[in-house]
Design a protein that fits this description.
Blueprint (H helix, E strand, L loop, with lengths): L3 H13 L12 E6 L3 E7 L3 E9 L1 E3 L1 H13 L4 E5 L3 E9 L5 H19 L5 E4 L17
Antiparallel strand pairs: 1-2, 2-3, 3-6, 4-7, 5-6
Length: 145
């Protein structure tokens, strides 16, 4: 559910980052491609905002996947899940009541940096997914919540 507060936070975030045209769609999502092809979806629900991103189309080894899940619990890193069609997906939730444009900006930067860190360790991934995920930058991310 989009409310005026979330619309204004997104608008201020877009202005701070010099991004035009950011808006939530009818599914309460805002899709964007950042930093040379990292696809992100920002989704708003009644009480929280969720940032979702494709981490890799390669399957993580069991030990690496377990470590990523442990890091989410112990260190507050983004959570992950494996989807056979998409690949390794990461996400982070934040309570709407705590959200400001500057916090959203920091969350996005931290999430993008986390994705880069995870993907910088290709030895932890075991095989590619059967079909690659094509991202059309004019449409935004294909990741759906």
């Amino acid at each position: 559910m989009i409310n005026g507060w979330m619309t204004s936070v997104l608008a201020e975030f877009a202005q701070r980052c010099s991004i035009s045209g950011l808006a939530f769609d009818r599914d309460n999502c805002c899709r964007l491609i950042v930093d040379h092809g990292i696809a992100l979806t920002v989704n708003v629900s009644i009480d929280r905002l969720t940032i979702v991103g494709l981490v890799s189309d390669r399957k993580p080894g069991l030990d690496w996947h377990t470590q990523l899940m442990k890091n989410a619990i112990v260190n507050g890193d983004p959570a992950v899940y494996w989807d056979e069609d998409l690949g390794l997906v990461g996400f982070v939730h934040v309570d709407q009541h705590l959200l400001t444009a500057s916090l959203l900006e920091q969350l996005m930067v931290d999430f993008i940096d986390w994705i880069k860190t995870v993907t910088s360790r290709p030895q932890h991934f075991i095989n590619p997914v059967n079909q690659a995920l094509d991202i059309d930058s004019s449409l935004g991310s294909l990741i759906r919540i």
